[in-house]
């Protein structure tokens, strides 16, 4: 085998060889807006659902609503968000789990009522610094959230699920619902899903049903599964 061919084979092996699953996970859950309770309801209940996995060993919760900020939930300020990612820094055998729910700004990013808009590039920088090459799962529940599936954020040990395409709104941001549609579908489908790909398919089916009943233009939830993530069960 010549040297050029050897390097090509080595690159393939390093890129797609399965990575060990994280032994334990550290989580951040962020509700970005305080105009309705839906975002905090989703943050609170999804934290509870995923915390039932014994290997989610720590969670940090951030809220933009005074109603929910308290002993275990801190303000979603710029300082506290930066501190949360600094604390998230993982070691060997650990993984990162991030859930964010709020409004989204088309072509701009994720809305934080106490900060402004968090652009996908800034979010990717936070994740890359805190999580590096460790197993990382990212859930973004917001309109236009497909814009967070970027080359900067992708990687062989990354799973990214978003509530909508980059150019489409998502639904359920109103006072007559408890959760956003996508957060509600994640909550209902986690028990029915063996792995992240199953969850994506099941949530899509759930969203399709809800949006058909509403007569809405489909939001088109998006997903990215890194080369090493195909067999990852949920938080295992």
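^ structure tokens above, recovered residues below v
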């Amino acid at each position: 085998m010549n040297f050029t061919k050897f390097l090509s084979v080595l690159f393939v092996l390093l890129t797609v060889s399965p990575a060990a699953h994280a032994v334990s996970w550290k989580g951040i859950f962020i509700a970005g807006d305080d105009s309705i309770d839906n975002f905090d309801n989703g943050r609170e209940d999804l934290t509870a659902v995923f915390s039932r996995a014994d290997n989610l060993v720590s969670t940090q919760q951030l809220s933009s609503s005074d109603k929910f900020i308290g002993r275990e939930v801190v303000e979603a300020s710029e300082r506290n968000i930066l501190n949360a990612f600094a604390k998230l820094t993982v070691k060997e055998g650990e993984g990162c789990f991030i859930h964010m729910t709020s409004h989204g700004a088309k072509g701009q990013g994720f809305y934080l009522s106490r900060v402004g808009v968090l652009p996908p590039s800034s979010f990717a920088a936070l994740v890359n610094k805190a999580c590096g090459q460790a197993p990382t799962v990212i859930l973004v529940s917001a309109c236009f959230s497909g814009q967070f599936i970027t080359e900067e954020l992708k990687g062989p040990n990354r799973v990214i699920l978003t509530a909508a395409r980059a150019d489409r709104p998502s639904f359920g941001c109103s006072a007559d619902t408890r959760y956003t549609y996508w957060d509600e579908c994640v909550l209902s489908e986690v028990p029915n899903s063996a792995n992240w790909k199953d969850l994506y398919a099941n949530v899509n089916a759930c969203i399709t049903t809800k949006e058909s009943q509403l007569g809405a233009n489909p939001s088109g939830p998006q997903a990215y599964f890194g080369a090493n993530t195909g067999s990852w069960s949920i938080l295992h």
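The two ends are 39 Å apart (CA to CA).
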